[in-house]
Specification:
It contains no helices and eleven strands. It starts with a strand and ends with a strand. The chain is an all-beta fold. Strands 2, 4, 5, 6, 9, 10 and 11 form a seven-stranded mixed sheet that branches. It has a four-stranded antiparallel sheet with strand order 1-3-8-7, with no helix packed on it.
């Protein structure tokens, strides 16, 4: 059974870059036909797909976030990392990493999800 766990800072100041890492166990990020996504859920709102990296290393991003978002991977550690630059309080959310068979994920009913990590953007 694959397990995903998010890690990173819980508090980030405006204008800084948020970096979150997803550590995967029980499955390799380089095998199969899976996409590895970052999804966030602001308080009181629905989930928002941010971007994904495929098993082969190809990346895709939400049009609304692509100018500030990058996803990379460390195959030796079986990890992939989200970088979100120039953060504002509007970026406050619970951030999830997800394994799925589709590039874009919009429901918690599909895919394997980490438990999520609360990130607050505040000065």
């Amino acid at each position: 059974q694959v397990q995903l766990q998010e890690s990173g800072p819980g508090l980030v100041k405006p204008s800084q870059t948020l970096s979150l890492t997803c550590t995967v166990s029980g499955g390799s990020i380089t095998t199969g036909l899976y996409y590895w996504s970052w999804i966030r859920q602001p308080p009181g709102k629905g989930v928002e797909w941010m971007g994904a990296i495929s098993y082969s290393g190809d990346t895709s991003y939400s049009p609304s976030l692509k100018s500030r978002t990058s996803i990379s991977r460390d195959m030796s550690k079986n990890q992939f990392t989200l970088h979100l630059s120039s953060v504002t309080p509007e970026d406050t959310a619970v951030y999830y990493c997800v394994r799925g068979r589709t590039k874009v994920v919009a429901s918690k009913n599909f895919g394997s999800w980490g438990q999520g990590i609360q990130v607050t953007v505040s000065s």
